[in-house]
Design a protein that fits this description.
The protein is an all-alpha fold and about 220 residues long. Helix content is about 70%, strand content about 0%. The protein has 12 helices and no strands. Helix 2 (about 30-40) crosses helix 3 (about 55-60), helix 4 runs antiparallel to helix 5 and helix 9 (about 165-180) runs antiparallel to helix 12.
Amino acid sequence: MIAGKEAAGLEPGGPREEVVVAPVVRPGSSAVAGLVAALRFLTRLPVPGRDTTGADLGASLAWFPPVGAACNAAVAGVFLAAALCWPAPVAAVLAVAVGLALTGCFHEDAVADSADGLGGGGGDRARVLTILKDSRIGSYGAAALWVVLSLRVAALWALSERLGAPLAVAAFALAGAWGRWTAAPLLRLPAAAASGLAKDLAAGIGRGPLLAASAWALALTA
């Protein structure tokens, strides 16, 4: 598990800005530790092994594209299997629900927070940060979630009809890879808050994980 995850509020809906991860370095392969950290960070899969530390989180960025691709490929696979039993719209909704369970609504929580902060903050930085720290969801967040989830269902349905099963899985997997890759350049930007999860992650990111994440995304696309 990620050290201090529950206490720090890393769970979906929790105050991510208050996360503090101790940068403890322990023996072991940094590459494997980074992969384990990426799986624990981006999914709810019970990955065994030692606790994930701050140093591991920095290295995990390199593995964001392949983990994102695997998650989306799994969702697309569920859609194709469900479409054998139910109409495509029903299968798409079920597949998206499986994806939400797989990631613990981690990304959707961020979408809702961002929409509430940007929509309700009125351009006031302090108010935006206050809204982001509030675990409750507002009207902007709810509307953004509806739009995002509706687009995901529609994308699965449309890709399967236009591209066929194999290409649809590949296209949805690539969307997951490049979507997670965007965390790499974004984390190079100055953190909005003085402390928090983004700042902890950025502190452990060098040029290596950024280049590795880009290489993974390009390799998966080739």
